[in-house]
Amino acid sequence: MKIKNCLAALVLFITATVFAADIAPDALVKNAAEEVLTIIKQDKDIQAGNTKKVVELVEAKVLPHFDFTRMTRLAMGRNWNQANDAQKQSLVKEFRTLLVRTYSVSLSQYRNQTIDYKPLKMAPDDKEATVKTAVVQPGGQAIPIDYRMSKTPEGWKVFDISVDGVSLVTNYRGSFNSTIEQSGVDGLIKSLAEKNKSAK
User: Fold this and answer.
1) Which residues, 6+ apart, have CB-to-CB distance to 28 below 8 Å?
2) Which of 15, 116, 133, 165 is the most exposed, fewest CB within 10 Å of its CB?
3) Reduced to 3 states, what is the DSSP secondary structure of residue 153?
4) CATH superfamily of domain region 3-199
5) How far apart are the C-alpha atoms of 148 and 130, rounded to whole Å?
6) How far apart are CA 26 and CA 160, in angstroms?
7) Bridge partners, 167 (sequence order)
């Protein structure tokens, strides 16, 4: 799976948190994407690759709309139940930091992509929804990107993203399982922490 494309999709999901609980999932994605594209086009520092500014932007605007605990649990799969509470907290923290650092780089590399929004198919009382979009690269093919979302008391939140049919959390699950088999849950936490430290 093209992780870079998936992480680039993540960074398109940015919006103000005001009234987010009242916004339908497809409207939230569309509003978010349009806002982030506008910000990128206007912010020369982001275009120039100012990592600190990009990370601050992601921390302030992107994170409120993602359920990182659920994302981490899904990425861990059956191994999640092997972790104690302290380990789970560390895993969520390190996985969150890893994604923030990685897709912050992708955000600064935006180059005039456009987004095609597909009609939303869901019942009024559904608690989960998949918002289907496609990112069109200049002179290239459209990349299907699906946002899997769940309704929470704080509004709709993303818990997985699929790029061209391949899930972000499923992709990470393979590498997580491999690390855990070799060095246990603490080994995975250490591995993630080292990656985050080297990215600073």
Assistant:
1) 15, 20, 65, 149, 155, 156
2) 165
3) coil
4) Tgt2/MlaC (3.10.450.710)
5) 5
6) 15
7) 162
- Spatial strand order of the sheet with 166-167 comes to 114-117, 128-136, 142-152, 155-163, 166-167
What phi, psi does 155 have (nearest 5°)?
A: 115, -175
Q: What is the largest CA-CA distance in the chain?
A: 49
CB 159 within 8 A of CB 148: yes
Q: Which tokens sit at 94?
A: 């390190």
- Residues 64, 48: contact at Cβ < 8 Å? no
DSSP 89-123: HHHHHHHHHHHHHHHHHHHHT--S-EEEEPPP---
pLDDT in tens, the chain (200 residues): 555 555 556 655 544 444 455 789 999 888 877 877 777 788 888 878 788 887 887 777 777 789 999 999 999 999 999 999 999 999 999 999 988 887 777 666 677 788 899 999 999 999 999 999 998 888 888 889 999 999 998 899 999 999 899 999 999 999 999 999 999 999 999 999 999 988 76
Which residues, other chains included, contact 196 with Cβ-Cβ below 8 Å and sequence gap of 6+? 94, 97, 98, 101
